[in-house]
Specification:
Blueprint lengths: L9 H26 L2 H11 L3 H14 L4 H13 L3 H12 L6 H18 L2 H10 L6 H14 L3 H14 L7 H14 L5 H17 L6 H17 L3 H14 L4 H13 L5 H11 L3 H14 L2 H14 L3 H17 L8 H4 L3 H15 L5 E3 L5 E2 L15 E5 H4 L1
Helix pairs in contact: 2-3, 3-4, 4-5, 4-6, 5-6, 6-7, 7-8, 8-9, 9-10, 10-11, 10-12, 11-12, 12-13, 13-14, 14-16, 15-16, 16-17, 16-18, 18-20
């Protein structure tokens, strides 16, 4: 392609146009900067120096001088919410929504911020209403996730399941804890007076489908809970064999959780084969736990004899020393002493400590062992006497190990 000399005329022309455009932009920036109050720059400086209280005061002053600063109102609202001043955050975002000239994108943003304010303030009904308005907006996914948390807090498991299903249509998010939503419905139906077996059966089936279709939901905890629910369902139908089989399945599918259902297995198996103690004793050798130790010891003491129970307890405590285990032994012995008068011969009961000694020993141990007799959330550290599938403290699912605090130390 031949070069034409007259093209050189365009070079200075293009240079001049670029210089003028840059000068215009620079003047525009300077003009906008002159219109910004000094409080705005003071606020930025306070933020950079990690002084949020003084920054808020400065930004409030700017907002009073120039109420058109929408983005500044958003920043103020977020700062208020972060500091826990939810009432002030709510007023800021409500004032934005009242503006008739607010663009749709800014209005959606303001509504989303307001919903977060309500949620932070614990106003769940208002937060729910705000998030429902956002379902067909750019904030739809965030709104669905927030609605799931709200329905969890309200223990409205049916609506939580529906929200999770709708969320799954938008993103690849199966929410593993959904299996527990169905389990909660089943548990409530089984504990109703009278039990609602129709609802319980359907909820258990839905929970099983979640476990089968979502590998992340197929945990030892979820499998154990499902099997225990099936066992409770079978018990209400007076089907001892089905109940026993479901409980025995826990040994293979969720060995860590056997201690939670061991007593139930002993009770039902006593009416059938009578082999539960032997089965649980073998399992204890592989997966020792304090809950399982206590169940086996009491069962041996009741169904066989005190010598066999003490031999098991002695071996168990040698392998896994435990104050709680020893306390359980003493408790059982004291209960037995109240029911049965001591015999004159030299049985194992006579060789053991007498009742007064046992009472003294247990009173000394109790003050030390009591603080260890807790299940502990590994996320927030919340401690509880009973086992929870959902932590009452941080509301996390499956955050409790089926072991007492003493076993975790």
């Amino acid at each position: 392609m031949d070069f034409e000399s007259w093209w050189l005329i365009f070079l200075p022309l293009l240079f001049a146009l670029g210089w003028m455009a840059a000068r215009f932009d620079f003047r525009h920036i300077l003009s906008e900067t002159r219109h910004l109050p000094d409080s705005y720059f003071k606020g930025l400086n306070f933020l950079l120096n990690e002084q949020p209280d003084r920054a808020i005061d400065a930004f409030v002053e700017v907002a009073k001088l120039d109420p058109e600063t929408v983005d500044l109102h958003f920043a103020l609202g977020s700062l208020f919410r972060r500091r826990g001043e939810t009432e002030r955050a709510i007023r800021v975002h409500q004032s934005l929504l009242l503006r008739a000239d607010l663009p749709d994108t800014k209005r959606e943003h303001a509504l989303h911020e307001l919903a977060q304010d309500y949620l932070k303030a614990g106003m769940l009904d208002r937060a729910e209403a705000a998030y429902l308005e956002l379902e067909s907006t750019a904030y739809s996914v965030q709104a669905k996730r927030a609605l799931v948390r709200i329905y969890e807090s309200e223990r409205d498991w049916s609506r939580a399941i529906e929200a999770v299903k709708q969320l799954g249509k938008q993103v690849d998010d199966l929410v593993p804890q959904r299996v527990h939503y169905s389990c909660e419905i089943a548990q409530k139906a089984l504990e109703a007076k009278p039990p609602d077996l129709v609802v319980a059966r359907q909820a258990i089936q839905e929970a099983q489908e979640v476990v089968d279709n979502d590998p992340s939901a197929s945990t030892q905890a979820s499998r154990a809970r499902l099997l225990m629910l099936r066992a409770s369902f079978a018990a209400l139908e007076d089907d001892d064999e089905a109940q026993r089989q479901h409980l025995l399945s826990v040994l293979d599918q969720a060995p860590e959780y056997v201690g939670l259902m061991a007593q139930q297995l002993v009770t039902v198996d006593t009416r059938l084969t009578g082999k539960a103690i032997e089965t649980l004793s073998r399992h204890y050798q592989l997966h020792p736990s304090l809950d399982l130790f206590q169940v086996i010891f009491k069962a041996l003491r009741t169904q066989q004899n005190s010598e066999t129970a003490w031999l098991f307890a002695r071996d168990g405590l040698r392998a896994h020393p435990s104050l709680l285990g020893l306390d359980s032994l003493i408790e059982v012995e004291l209960a037995q002493a109240d029911r049965v008068a001591p015999e004159p011969d030299h049985s194992i009961d006579d060789r053991a400590l007498n009742k007064d000694d046992l009472v003294l020993l247990r009173s000394v141990m109790k003050q030390h062992s009591q603080r260890l007799d807790r299940y502990t959330c590994h996320v927030c550290g919340f401690q509880a006497k009973r086992y929870y599938w959902q932590c009452p403290g941080c509301h996390g699912w499956e955050t409790y190990r089926p072991r007492r605090l003493e076993e975790s130390q």
